[in-house]
Amino acid sequence: MNESHESMYVIPARFRKMENMHIIFWLLKDVSWCMIWKPLGIAMIIPTLLIAIIIAWRTRDIRSELAHNLAIVFWITANAYWMISEFLHFDTMRVWGQFEGKHLALIPFVIGIGILANYYLLQKPAEEREAQVATL
């Protein structure tokens, strides 16, 4: 495709600053998890998840961005739950059959994968077909 005909995705500076802060909060959360700094790790869940939700909301009109940003929301949710399960020592407790407390993190992980699978297997091909029809 000719570069002059490609659509551009432009992020306003104030949104980009928020995305950069999101990365800082996410790293602080994960470093806290690694270092077993429980209060800081748990406290970082709130801004990390909140900013991820705001980013997803702001990109709700762009299907591809929304799908990826929702997957990130569910990834952070799973990651935060897993961290809490380790901090509060219920990660190895049996909850059902062979499943332990930490395995409940699979629920939001699978939801995120499902959102991306839906996008790549259904939405994106439909968008590409619509774009092909529009150019005929």
Automatic annotation (TrEMBL):
Keywords: Membrane, Transmembrane, Transmembrane helix. The keyword Transmembrane applies. The chain crosses the membrane at residues 36-57, 66-84, 104-122. This is Uncharacterized protein. It comes from Flavisolibacter ginsengisoli DSM 18119.
